[in-house]
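Quick review question:
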C-alpha cells in the first residue's frame, strides 16, 4: 500500500457532500485534524533513523521499528492513513457491483442485514474510533477500531492480510457540527455518499500491498 507523505488532494469541494457532510466540517476535518496527524508523523520521524523512509515502509515494518514512544507514531500514522482512506471512500451516485452484492448477501444473509450490522457496530462503539468492512482470507467482517487504529493494527502485530474495503470515521469531529448528538443520522447518511466504485475494486484485491 502506497502512503503519501502529504495531504491528498481532494477531488471535490468542501461543500460537495452537503447536506450529508457540511462544508465547515469537511474543511476543518481535512485542513486541521488530518493535517495535524500527518504533521505529527513527519515531526516524529524527523528525530529518528527512519526519517528518510517512506510511510509505506513504516507501516509494513512497524513491528520491527526500534523506537521509543511507538504509540505516538501509531496513533498519528493511523490518523493519516485512515483519513486518506476515508476521503477516497466518498463519492456521489455510485452503485455496488453485482459480484460484491452477491457476496455480501452470501456472508451476511442479505444486504439489509449487512447495513444493520454495520450501523449497530458503529453505534455500539464507545468513544472515538472507526467502523470498517474488511476482508481477511476471503471472509468479510464488520469491525470497529479504537481511536486512530488502522485495521492492520487489530492484533499485537501488524496483520497485512487485512484488506479494508469500507471505513467510516466515528470521531465527533467528523459529524458533530452538523448532527450534534444524533450520531445515528450521520452513520445512516454515509450510505448516500459511499464510493461503491472504490469499494467494488477493493473487494477484488488479493493483498494489502496492491491497495491504492
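Suggested answer, residue by residue:
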Amino acid at each position: 500500500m502506497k502512503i503519501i507523505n502529504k495531504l491528498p488532494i481532494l477531488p471535490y469541494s468542501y461543500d460537495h457532500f452537503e447536506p450529508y457532510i457540511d462544508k465547515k466540517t469537511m474543511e476543518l476535518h481535512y485542513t486541521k485534524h488530518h493535517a495535524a496527524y500527518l504533521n505529527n508523523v513527519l515531526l516524529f520521524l524527523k528525530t529518528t533513523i527512519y526519517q528518510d523512509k517512506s510511510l509505506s515502509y513504516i507501516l509494513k515494518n512497524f513491528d520491527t521499528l526500534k523506537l521509543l514512544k511507538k504509540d505516538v507514531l501509531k496513533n498519528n500514522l493511523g490518523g493519516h492513513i485512515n483519513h486518506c482512506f476515508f476521503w477516497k471512500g466518498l463519492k456521489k451516485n455510485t452503485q455496488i457491483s453485482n459480484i460484491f452484492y452477491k457476496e455480501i448477501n452470501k456472508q451476511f444473509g442479505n444486504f439489509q442485514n449487512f447495513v444493520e450490522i454495520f450501523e449497530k457496530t458503529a453505534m455500539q462503539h464507545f468513544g472515538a474510533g472507526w467502523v470498517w468492512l474488511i476482508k481477511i482470507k476471503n471472509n468479510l467482517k464488520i469491525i470497529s477500531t479504537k481511536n486512530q487504529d488502522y485495521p492492520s493494527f487489530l492484533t499485537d502485530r501488524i496483520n497485512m492480510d487485512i484488506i479494508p474495503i469500507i471505513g467510516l470515521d466515528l470521531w465527533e469531529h467528523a459529524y458533530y457540527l452538523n448532527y450534534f448528538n444524533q450520531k445515528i443520522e450521520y452513520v445512516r447518511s454515509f450510505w448516500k455518499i459511499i464510493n461503491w466504485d472504490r469499494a467494488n475494486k477493493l473487494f477484488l484485491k488479493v493483498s494489502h500491498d496492491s491497495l491504492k
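Why it works: The chain has one domain: 21-212. The longest helix spans residues 23-46.
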